[in-house]
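wait is this the right file?? whatever heres the structure
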């Protein structure tokens, strides 16, 4: 049976067919749907872990315990889980172990462009890179088999376009495997220096065997079309190149991108007069070819920035210009990302902007607090950095600056990597104010539960982390829970806490407006009391706009009746209508 599937769903299908038993991940676009689809299979234990490092360790433990296991993350999540991944390369596996990482060329939902192939090379972990959904399924299934064959974890590298594109997939049956026997093996699994030195020898020998495998594996395919032009490529770049070049060139499609073959590439190069390497982001394959003494055309004709297009490839290889897009007579308005109508973070940022505070920001929906007109967020670095970076800023600039500084971090992000930063503030005698934006869900990646929601990935009730008690337990004596839509009350709390000479936490608690149980009623409307002061426009609510005459209007199709604008208007000119 064939089925149209997202690349991410196909990875889940491949893992299921391979007999995976344990999957642990942290949500991160564009990888989230892999684990969300795994949940559909009752035979598989799945969890949202507090962060990617924990997720990797759970999967590694399951593998050592004899089960086939998997952990999924986006590229920056791989940074978080790098520590156990590098060591797992030394220990090897018992049950097959697969790490699925989704890169984001073009930064559709990320703070950087990062090429995860570097991690595969640095950790000496083999990596497969599928080009479509069928390969997503098949490569994942194969990765588990190869993991056990070569006693190593395997990477599956995806990208946004592969993860979120659909193509036909041949659905197979699940292979139910018995748990592999577990035996205590200190030299293999206890990575103290004396053991690790010996395991490193095994890793290098394994790499030689993997290179030999890559030379003859059907994962790497040669397509000869009688052309004098050759193209070496992989992943989504292969799909773009096929669309652009068709049968006008010869192709070497690399499904295994670490380690890379040597003789296979030499033989292919000898068949052509001109050889291109087409790969998004960094010149990994190109540099490998040049190290082999092969003359290739790569980043001197292609960019290291963002995503490729068929038109770009056609121009670079064949010299044929193709329009990138079709222009329209009408001007299309831009649609920058914006906090949703009713977003609880809007009240927080409105107050912080009003008070003129410096805001150390974090990763999540609330990063949009940097956009006009709220324009509150000063920095965004990585998960948890809002807390740690603010301490550094305060230590650098002194205690008075600290009273003009706050950190903002979401509830899920705080659990992910904000707790240690808060401990750092207490331990090193900081006086920072941290605002935890508790919207009762992991919002940015599509409403996944987390340890603060009291629900597991399957919606089962579980222990709920008490943020207030947690903060007090690490030494924060001043913890206040406040509603960010109570603008006067929230402002008073912020003023009070930022004036302290000791650390404090404000839990800005109001659920995400998109949660099913959040039921605002009616919509807001502007009356003739409006003085055109435009205070409501400072909220940046997409439902509120200015008329051609300079007045204010509220779009009833976007307004959900949250009422925040009513609290802002100084003249009582906005009312709630049914």
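ok assuming it is, sequence goes like this
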């Amino acid at each position: 049976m064939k089925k149209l599937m997202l690349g991410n769903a196909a990875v889940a299908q491949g893992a299921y067919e391979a007999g995976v038993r344990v999957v642990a991940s942290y949500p991160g676009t564009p990888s989230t749907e892999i684990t969300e689809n795994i949940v559909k299979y009752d035979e598989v234990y799945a969890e949202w872990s507090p962060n990617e490092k924990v997720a990797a360790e759970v999967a590694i433990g399951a593998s050592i315990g004899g089960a086939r296991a998997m952990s999924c993350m986006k590229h920056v999540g791989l940074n978080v889980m790098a520590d156990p991944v590098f060591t797992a390369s030394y220990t090897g596996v018992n049950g097959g172990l697969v790490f699925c990482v989704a890169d984001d060329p073009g930064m559709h939902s990320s703070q950087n462009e990062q090429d995860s192939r570097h991690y595969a090379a640095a950790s000496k972990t083999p990596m497969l890179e599928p080009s479509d959904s069928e390969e997503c399924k098949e490569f994942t299934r194969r990765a588990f088999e190869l993991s056990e064959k070569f006693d190593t974890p395997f990477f599956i590298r995806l990208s946004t376009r592969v993860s979120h594109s659909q193509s036909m997939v041949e659905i197979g049956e699940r292979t139910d495997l018995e748990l592999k026997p577990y035996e205590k093996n200190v030299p293999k699994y206890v990575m103290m220096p004396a053991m690790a030195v010996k395991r490193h020898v095994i890793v290098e020998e394994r790499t030689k065997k993997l290179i030999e495998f890559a030379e003859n594996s059907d994962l790497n395919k040669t397509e000869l079309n009688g052309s004098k032009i050759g193209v070496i490529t992989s992943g989504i770049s292969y799909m773009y190149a096929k669309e652009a070049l068709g049968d006008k060139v010869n192709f070497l499609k690399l499904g295994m991108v670490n380690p890379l073959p040597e003789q296979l590439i030499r033989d292919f190069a000898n068949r052509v007069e001109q050889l291109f390497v087409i790969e998004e982001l960094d010149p990994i394959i190109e540099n490998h070819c040049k190290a082999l003494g092969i003359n290739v055309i790569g980043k001197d004709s292609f960019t290291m920035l963002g995503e490729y297009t068929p038109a770009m490839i056609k121009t670079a290889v064949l010299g044929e210009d193709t329009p990138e897009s079709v222009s329209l007579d009408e001007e299309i308005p831009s649609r920058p990302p914006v906090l949703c109508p009713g977003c609880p973070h809007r009240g927080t940022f409105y107050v912080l902007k009003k008070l003129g505070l410096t805001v150390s920001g974090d990763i999540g929906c609330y990063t949009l607090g940097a956009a006009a007109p709220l324009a509150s967020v000063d920095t965004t670095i990585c998960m948890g950095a809002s807390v740690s970076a603010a301490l550094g800023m305060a230590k650098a600039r002194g205690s008075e600056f600290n009273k003009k500084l706050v950190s903002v971090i979401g509830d899920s992000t705080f659990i992910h990597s904000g707790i240690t930063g808060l401990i750092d503030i207490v331990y090193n005698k900081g006086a920072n104010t941290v605002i935890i934006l508790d919207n009762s869900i992991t919002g940015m990646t599509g409403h996944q539960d987390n340890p603060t929601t009291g629900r597991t990935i399957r919606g089962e009730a579980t222990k709920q982390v008490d943020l207030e008690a947690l903060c007090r337990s690490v030494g924060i004596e001043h913890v206040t829970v406040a509603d960010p839509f109570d603008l006067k009350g929230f402002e008073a709390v912020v003023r009070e806490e930022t004036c302290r000479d000791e650390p404090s936490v404000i839990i800005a608690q109001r659920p995400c407006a998109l949660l099913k149980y959040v039921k605002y009623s009616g919509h807001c409307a502007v009356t003739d009391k409006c003085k055109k002061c435009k205070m409501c426009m400072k909220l940046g609510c997409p439902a509120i706009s200015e008329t051609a005459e300079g007045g204010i209007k509220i779009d009833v199709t976007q307004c959900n009746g949250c009422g925040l604008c009513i609290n802002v208007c100084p003249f009582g000119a906005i009312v709630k209508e049914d």
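The mean pLDDT is 96. so i think its the right one actually
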